[in-house]
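Field log, afternoon session.

UNIT: design team B
ACTIVITY: writing a sequence onto a fixed backbone
BACKBONE:
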């Protein structure tokens, strides 16, 4: 779509979209993270609209080792593109000796590899930041754990023959839209080193089935351990470049405390534990109720830096923490781990939280630091449980 068309894009509920014909204004907007809400500002219509499109996991579905596709969280910046499998091509070019173009049957004919990976959106926890950055208002539910099957990216890069001056590899999806005034394809870069890790895949199966349209049909990038923005869906182009790629989505997904900061790009997932809210839910408030006596509290924990080594549970708002039992997983180092802890519930109001620790020495904070984009907020989940008399 030519950039001139931008002027004709209108919002459904108000006048013409605020965009600029001047690229300088667009460039200013590129580095600006989402607007931060006023301290008591309610969730906007736009945030509600995003929340209805981009759903989270249902917390009770943390019970499944492998998240069924319809229960896996979903995040899509623009529209889910309709991709025709027969005409779809994946191009690998740029700083390579032999540019290649592959159809789906070509990928399927290569030796497949599978990896089970916990994906989490970098914006998970954003709505719990004070003040709240306006964007997809995740609480804690932007997570899922799926088995992805495809071809190692390293094999494809080897086939194409990466040249010595290569620095980054740029991955582009078939989706296209406008973000803070800038029309773009969704594109992300990785260094050649990160892209060549043997667990990075171009995946065409999710849990043994063709990718659902919303999860990137027919093929997507899978970068184990990294936050969701790196997992480029509807992959059509892999471009090897001789300079650092500084695209919109690299700058957008950065930790900064002020809009004019360069920021620190987000990469790997910080440790987090979630618990399956115990007892019975109230329909509207989702407030939990349990009866007095023993309750088994369980959930999942993960980290993109290193395997989770410990999970602790508090049932008294952080006054005391007890060690949870951490289950082994056969699913490999990038899959979440199940944990369990016993609780003798006594009548009254209780606040439950869990926290994870990983083998890199990282620990989940009770309250994570604020940043403008609302990223990597791994503050502990807070689950209120009323124990009835
Ligand atoms: N092409 C494309 N890839 C994308 C996105 C997108 O909007 N377009 N969103 C990214 C983000 S921010 C996240 S969190 C994950 C979500 O993957 P899922 O919807 O399969 O859970 O996809 C990533 N890959
Ligand atoms: Mo995301």
């Amino acid at each position: 779509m030519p950039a001139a068309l931008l002027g004709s894009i209108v919002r459904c509920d108000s006048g013409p979209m605020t965009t600029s014909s001047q690229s300088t204004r667009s460039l200013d907007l590129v580095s600006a993270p989402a607007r931060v809400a006023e301290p008591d500002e309610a969730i906007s219509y736009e945030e509600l609209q995003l929340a209805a499109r981009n759903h989270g996991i249902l917390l009770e579905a943390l019970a499944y080792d492998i998240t069924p596709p319809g229960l896996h969280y979903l995040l899509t910046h623009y529209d889910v593109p309709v991709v025709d499998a027969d005409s779809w091509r994946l191009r690998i070019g740029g700083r390579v000796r032999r540019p290649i173009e592959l159809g789906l049957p070509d990928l399927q004919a290569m030796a497949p590899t599978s990896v089970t990976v916990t994906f989490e959106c970098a914006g998970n926890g954003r709505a719990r930041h004070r003040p709240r950055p306006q964007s997809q208002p995740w609480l804690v539910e932007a997570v899922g754990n799926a088995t992805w099957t495809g071809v190692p990216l390293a094999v494809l890069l080897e086939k194409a023959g990466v040249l010595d001056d290569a620095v980054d590899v740029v991955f582009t999806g078939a989706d296209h839209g406008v973000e803070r005034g800038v029309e773009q394809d969704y594109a992300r870069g990785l260094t050649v080193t990160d892209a060549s890790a043997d667990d990075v895949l171009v995946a065409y199966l999710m849990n043994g089935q063709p990718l659902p349209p919303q999860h990137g049909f027919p093929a997507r990038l899978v970068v184990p351990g990294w936050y969701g923005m790196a997992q480029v869906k509807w992959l059509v182009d892999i471009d090897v470049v001789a300079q650092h790629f500084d695209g919109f989505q690299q700058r957008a997904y950065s930790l900064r405390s002020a809009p004019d900061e360069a920021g620190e790009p987000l990469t790997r997932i910080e440790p987090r534990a979630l618990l399956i809210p115990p007892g019975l839910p109230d329909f509207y408030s989702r407030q939990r109720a349990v009866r007095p006596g023993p309750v088994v509290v369980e959930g999942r924990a993960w980290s993109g830096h290193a395997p989770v080594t410990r999970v602790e549970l508090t049932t008294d708002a952080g006054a005391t923490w007890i060690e949870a039992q951490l289950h082994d997983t056969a699913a490999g180092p990038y899959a979440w781990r199940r944990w369990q802890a016993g609780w003798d519930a006594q009548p009254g109001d209780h606040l439950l939280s869990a926290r994870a620790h990983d083998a890199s020495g990282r620990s989940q904070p009770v309250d994570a630091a604020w940043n403008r984009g609302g990223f990597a907020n791994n503050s502990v989940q807070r689950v209120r449980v009323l124990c009835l008399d």
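LOG NOTE: The domain at 272-387 is CATH 2.60.40.650 (Immunoglobulin-like).
NEXT ACTIVITY: expression trials, pending approval
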